[in-house]
Design a protein that fits this description.
This protein has 2 domains: 12-57; 78-276, MetI-like fold, CATH 1.10.3720. Helices cover 82% and strands 0% of the residues. It has helices at 12-18, 24-48, 52-57, 59-70, 78-110, 118-133, 136-147, 151-187, 192-231, 234-243, 247-276.
């Protein structure tokens, strides 16, 4: 093999030695993982009686339905659509704002650096875990049964789940910042209030904001789905169009949802990039 610098030849053994090839154990693990994944896929499709081939062959009916009923979108009722879109955005923002306050309070109790009680720390972490591990849609069904349909139900459902997520993230961020700053400040004689206000919170704010923006994205998507079970917003309007077989108007609502979510994703990604830089 010719040397790239033109000074002779390079032996194949030397070339192979310089390349970072995957080990046999890594390749064996990957093969075993793929085999197990295929077996699980086969068992799952057999248990659910899902036929992937039949699903692919039935795509023709699906696209005929979409092209004949959903296309072209209807340009009517734009006023109602705009109001529903704004309602959905307000739901997501209100839920995220209230969840941030609740999660910040819980994170102070769940962080060992601030609350020196293992019992309280564990209880708060377990409570946050319960909140986030029960799907938001389940909370919406429970609250709709209790309070009836409306945007209040949607906001409360989002608050419950988002508080659990943010509490977990805030606790992790505070623990990480405390690990780097607590001991030197305590050794210097700083008081706990000054450590919290002058070190922990300023160091954690960029991470807090990044996760808050991410939850705005999640809540915007979730509020659309929650509206379909009576929690208000554009999801409720969309479900109404579908029940009325007004598929052209439903198509317009779906396009509006897609545009809003993409726009918010781009905006929050840009803001997170500015914050983390």
């Amino acid at each position: 093999m010719t040397n790239p610098r033109g000074t002779g030849t390079v032996k194949e053994g030397e070339t192979a030695g310089k390349l970072r090839l995957a080990s046999r154990e890594s390749l064996r693990t990957s093969v075993v993982f793929l085999i197990v994944l295929l077996l699980l896929f086969g068992l799952s499709t057999g248990f659910t009686r899902f036929n992937p081939i039949a699903a692919l062959l039935s795509q023709r009916e699906f696209w005929n339905f979409i092209l004949s009923d959903f296309v072209p979108p209807s340009a009517g009722r734009l006023g109602a659509l705009f109001r529903a879109v704004m309602q959905t955005m307000y739901m997501a923002l209100a839920a995220t704002g209230l969840s941030t306050v609740l999660a910040l309070f819980l994170s102070f109790l769940g962080t060992a650096a601030i609350t020196r009680s293992v019992l309280i720390n564990s209880a708060v972490r377990a409570f946050a875990s319960i909140l986030r591990n029960i799907p938001t849609l389940v909370w919406a069904f429970i609250l709709v049964a209790a309070f009836g349909i409306g945007t209040v139900v949607g906001i409360l459902s989002l608050i419950i789940g988002t508080t659990g997520y943010l509490a977990r993230f805030f606790i992790e961020i505070l623990d990480e910042v405390a690990e780097e700053t607590m001991e030197p400040l305590l050794a210097a004689g700083a008081s706990m209030p000054s450590i919290i206000t002058q070190a922990l919170l300023p160091g954690a704010v960029p991470g807090f904001i990044a996760w808050i923006l991410y939850c705005v994205e999640l809540n915007l998507r979730a509020s659309t789905i929650l509206g379909m079970v009576g929690a208000g917003g554009i999801g409720l309007l969309l479900m109404g169009y579908i029940k009325q077989f007004n598929y052209a108007a439903a198509s317009t609502a779906i396009l509006a949802v897609a545009v809003i979510i993409i726009g918010v994703n781009l905006l929050t990604a840009y803001l997170r990039k500015l914050i983390m830089c």
